[in-house]
Amino acid sequence: MFNWCVRVNIIKIIHEFNECYILSAMMEWYQLITLLVVIVIYHIWTRRSLPPGPWGLPVIGYLPWLDPKAPYQTLSRLADKYGPIYGLWMGSVYTVVVTDVKMIKTLFSKDSTTGRAPLYLTHGIMKGYGLICAEGDLWREHRRFIHNCLRQLGGTKTGHRRSKMESLIMKHVNELLMCFSKNAGVSIDPLESLRHSLGSAINSIVFGKSWSKDDEEWIWLQDMQEEGTKQIGIAGPLNFLPFLRFLPRYRQTMDFLLKGKHETHKVYQKIIAQRQQNDFGDANRFVENILEAFLLEKSKKSEKEASLFYNDQQFYHLLADIFGAGLDTTLTTLRWYLLYMAQNPTIQDKIRDEIQDVLQGRPFNLEDIAHLPLFEASICESQRIRSVVPVGIPHGAIDDLVVDRYRVPKGTMIVPLQWAIHMDEKMWPNPEKFDPWRFIDEEGRVAKPENFIPFQLGKRMCVGDELARMLLFSFGANIVQHFSFVLEDKNTDFIGDCGITLTPKSHKIIFTKTNIVVKSNVVSE
Ligand code: HEM
């Protein structure tokens, strides 16, 4: 009897327990469903009126689907699917990609898009100093300062200082021609000589000095620049998932970049100290380089302004920005230019004929550009076919804004996808074909379509665009005038490696002196 009672009670207890358990389990499902509904509603609410785009995973967003070697290709394919403006999550950073030039123009003319994208590598390492990563008042002050500096130094379309800048550039062009001349008939990778000559021109503009080719400090600075640009790939996961810096692989990248920055600043410190020993004399005289202009500008500022805008950290970062932005982009453009010209000897001959017709054997000068449409068009075409910055340099929205009925929230990274714009088949039929005549109108003049934006657009557009053109024209025209050149290997890669810039892989070109007699002793060796 006792046993039976105990058994009945136990069965009752088990029943109650089961009911309780099932109820509580049901409650959990109920709560779980409620929670899911809330999450979905929240997600739909926060995504309301955002541009269309693909879904991603929590935390990492769309990153796993981006091709790490060619993110610009993945992003261009998404543009085909979602249209000229779409959004996606790159890790924790909401990103809006734009491939319509009119939209980019509208967006980038607004003050609210003059920020920079919240990328860990740029913000975490550069800390908002310099010009490229700066925002707000610091950016405005130094944008104005560098713009004025370049104008004073002659990096502008007009003005008497332009010819001074041209002579400076020509000195380094001649050095390059001599080097190619010494190696005539031999297959060489032009990278080293090009980087030295272009870098020397930029060094003279930035620091007022240049180094000899075999100077150890200069070789180190070049290596740092090259490796640094590779490591700070805009699409690198560390940019969007800062916690990755604790993993050994990414810690190495961070250590390399931070150490490189620190050591580079030490070199700059030394150059600045040497320059400070000299007296500036008349504060209103023309400055000769950016370093000197900075010191002069600082001396004119109040103590408060100087400590805010002209402090040491800003000085080093600014010098590094102008050196880096100036060298890396022009060097890469010229390398692609030589590659495409070497691959297309018939086009190359036509351009050389044009140069010969106009110059009649005299040395090239920048005023000749107005009479060399095919040559100018060939430079444009190489900037189009291989965008040096294929994903553009992203901006950051510093306020909520609306574009084409879509909401772009504050903090969004805005990517002007140059690759998609420059390779759009509707605008550029057969986009992989190197065809300079795309840039020539019916009257035979150079015509640059709206969809050609190598320097981007708007308030943060490249501040060195005119200097860049002066460098590209001077180096490009002189090389074509003095040498005919071909690829060593017909299977040379034309895809390149993508970091911040899209650079050619190493390759070899054979330069042969042309039989054009140029009335100058530049390449007589
Ligand atoms: C072919 C050569 C060049 C190309 C393709 C190029 C392209 C660009 C692009 C796409 C941007 C981003 C603009 C934006 O954020 O909207 C930029 C910014 C910049 N470029 Fe260039 N650039 C070239 C040469 C130069 C040169 C020679 C200098 C040297 C003075 C220079 C200095 C800068 C600076 C300082 C910025 C940042 C401007 C800012 O954030 O306000 N660039 N460039």
Question: Which properties best describe this structure?
Answer:
525 residues, alpha+beta, iron ion binding, three-stranded antiparallel sheet, five-stranded mixed sheet, heme binding, monooxygenase, disordered N terminus, 17 helices, binds protoporphyrin IX containing FE, 12 strands, membrane, globular, Cytochrome_P450_fam2
Low-confidence stretches: 1-11
What is the overall pLDDT average?
A: 90
Outline the biggest β-sheet: 5 strands, mixed
What is the gyration radius calculated from CA atoms?
29 Å
How do the strands line up in the largest sheet?
1-2-8-5-3
Beta-strand percent range: 5-15%
| Cα separation of the termini | 121 Å
How would you sum up this structure, described in words?
With 525 residues, this protein is of the alpha+beta class. It is built from 17 helices and twelve strands. It has helices at residues 2-46, 71-82, 101-108, 120-126, 136-153, 161-182, 191-207, 216-231, 237-240, 248-276, 290-300, 303-309, 312-343, 345-359, 373-385, 418-422, 465-482, and strands at 85-90, 93-98, 115-116, 187-188, 395-396, 401-403, 406-408, 413-416, 483-487, 497-498, 502-503, 509-513. The strands form four sheets. The chain has a five-stranded mixed β-sheet with strand order 1-2-8-5-3. It has a three-stranded antiparallel β-sheet with strand order 4-12-9. Strand 10 and strand 11 (502-503) form a beta hairpin. The radius of gyration is 29 Å and the shape is globular. The structure holds protoporphyrin IX containing FE. The site of protoporphyrin IX containing FE has 24 residues, from helix 13 and helix 17. Belongs to the cytochrome P450 family. GO terms for molecular function: heme binding; iron ion binding; oxidoreductase activity, acting on paired donors, with incorporation or reduction of molecular oxygen, reduced flavin or flavoprotein as one donor, and incorporation of one atom of oxygen; steroid hydroxylase activity. It comes from Phaedon cochleariae. Its cofactor is heme.
